[in-house]
Structures
1.
Amino acid sequence: MNESTIPLYASQPLLPLSGVRFELSHAKEFFNPGKDVVNPPHIHNCVELFLNISSDASFLVNNRLYPLLYGDVILSKPNDIHVCLFNKSYTHEHFCLWIDEDAPGTLFPFLHEQNSSALFRFEEERRQQLIDLFFELHRLCENAGSVLEKTACILKILTFFEHPAVPQRQETQMPDTLQLILDDIHENFAEIHHVNQLTDKYFVSHATLSRWFREHLHTSPREYLESKKLAHAVKLLSNGETVTEACMQAGFPCCSHFIVLFKKKFGETPLKYKKHAGTRTP
């Protein structure tokens, strides 16, 4: 390259990653669903990528339950209700990669697209490449790899999710009525104030509905409904709504009850959460 071809300044900006944080978790342990503690459905205000290595498991995202195969990835968006459900006693191995941005969607908008599938299933070669990248990122985190090395590895991982996945069919055995109830809660949670509304509408007993939720979702109908309402309240608070507005719009009839539930779930009051959310850099 001669001197005349060297630009006076670089015109192509680097991706500004200073506003991005991540955490990586790797688990490989024997789990007995009948004896060990089962995590309830929960939400985050960040993106979660769950990579299944070796598990007989399913994964709930909002109102959809997906069976997991080797190398499958579940993408949960901020405030999605989600949980991994282990189906039998087994040595389960998986990765969880959490990615948080100061301004969600600014750097990686494809991770926040509403119409993208939660389940990503890749061809064998691509699947193994992705698994190798997760193990490489884990090695870098365990052995104090440089920020640049970890950033490069995460960017390689994210290229697998830049294009919407082909929606995968739900194959998990679930009663048809339970799926209808989950769809109803997903669409109308703010208008559903008591589980009785569901049992009356779908002609099922409290005992049957509780058994379905316990067997298939590892939670209770009341806790699931409350989680949907709280997830929406979190979104409203993050968008600047007042505590009272978030309470009412999420479908809680009583502000004091809403505050108690919120603090129990997130460890702080809605007002404190709103203030913390307001400090995030736009």
Note: The mean pLDDT is 84.
2.
Amino acid sequence: MKSSLLDHIRADLRAQLGRLAKAATEAHAAATDPGSKAEGKYDTRSLEASYLAAGQARQVDELAAALHTFEALSLADFASDADIDAGALVEVDLHGETAFFLLVPASGGLVITHAGDEITLLSPASGLYQKLRGRHCGDSLDSPPLTIREVS
């Protein structure tokens, strides 16, 4: 299941990268277009367009790096009694509802739908990632209030 999950994540990241790269190209074109030249000292269209282009270019670089990470990533299966660590798919009871978290090296916060379930990617920068590491099936957390149901 994890290999198809990784394929899904890669496809989602590729699609996002394509959309963002197109937007960054358009923002760069707007910033360098002669028509966006300032018409007065208070006209900041060109400056704003250049800030937008720079920010989007930075996002493209970050997303490309994340995709590169996922292209080389493989996720091991975990025994149900194993310590939760990077690569684990964790099913939890969160506020009385089932939630799924996948501990990965990048793209934390991305939510994908796979096999009818929403799975939230958690990266090491996430507090929840850190709280889940080393825990086991049946363990509970107070903040956020959750109980670990299954680890795979």
Note: Residues 2-32 form the longest helix (31 residues).
